[in-house]
Amino acid sequence: MSLLDIQNVSLGYDSNVILENLNFTVNKGDYLCIVGENGSGKSTLMKTLLNLQDPIKGKIVKGDGLLPNEIGYLPQQTVIQRDFPASVSEIVVSGFQARCGLRPFYNKEEKKLARENMERLGILNLSKHCYRELSGGQQQRVLLARALCATRKLLLLDEPVSGLDPKVTADMYNLIKDLNNDGITIIMISHDISAAIKYASHILHIGSNVFFGTREEYLSSDAGKFFLASEGGVSE
Predict the structure, then answer these.
(1) Fewer Cβ atoms within 10 A, N terminus or C terminus of the chain?
(2) Under DSSP, is residue 187 helix (H, G, I), strand (E, B) or coil?
(3) Taking phi first (over 0 means left), then psi (-120 to 50 degrees means alpha), and beta for anything else, what does residue 61 get?
């Protein structure tokens, strides 16, 4: 079942077009990695999928009853955000803000789900700790738990392992894959082509040429072969 259907979409700012006539579909249960050169439009596409900006032309059709406030988002962190003085539990439960509307508090069900998501990601023991005192890997788990509070359908991840050491990176990728195996659809921007090939079901490669297809189709495509060669190959 289609969650997102991107139809002849052109992206950019004002009249400055970055990417034209983009077409692809994200189905329920997919794991889509978006790869490509710097400045190719990956972040602009993510903002458009999050309804933070409109496409210059074309349309994005949501399916399976997906609402704008049902998309979980894990952004790249700034230095200021890493120093945020709040507890882990406060940050995680804030993932429900978009659903609260005018209600000024979180209900029992939301608090229960926040606790379950912390347990799911192995950070329940950190719930009372201050966020800025955590390691980079722990902070990413907190933000991922927060994103899960916003959705049971679709997670958008922007370079989720940026700045993490190799072991923590591997742990984060395994967590994301486990969430996908549990039925959550994943869309992830990544510069890590090896991880994209290892974990993704589909690849969207944007640049001077655009490719969209399955992992296997990407491996045999001209775009995939060129990009893999430039990255020095990929380990299975």
Answers:
(1) C
(2) strand
(3) beta
Q: Report phi then psi at 60, rounded to 5.
A: -120, 115
DSSP state of 69: G
The third-level CATH classification (topology) of the domain covering 1-66+156-236 is Rossmann fold (3.40.50)
Residue 58 pLDDT greater than 80, yes or no: yes
Q: In terms of pTM, does the model score above 0.85?
A: yes
Identify the bridge partners of residue 187 per DSSP, sorted by sequence position: 32, 156
Residue 236: pLDDT band by 50, 70, 90 thresholds? very low
Yes or no: say if 62 and 3 are a contact pair by the CB < 8 Å rule: yes
pLDDT tens track for 69-121: 789 999 887 666 778 889 999 999 999 887 666 567 888 999 999 999 999 99
Query: Which helix (DSSP H) or strand (DSSP E) does residue 175 occupy?
Result: helix 166-181
Please choose, from the candidates 75, 78, 70, the residue with its C-alpha nearest in 3D space to the C-alpha of residue 96: 70
Domain ranges of the chain: 1-66+156-236, 77-152
Question: If you average pLDDT over residues 131-157, what whole number do you get?
Answer: 93
Report the alpha-carbon angle 15-17-20, nearest 5.
135
Question: How many CA atoms lie less than 13 Å away from 79 in the CB half-sphere?
Answer: 0
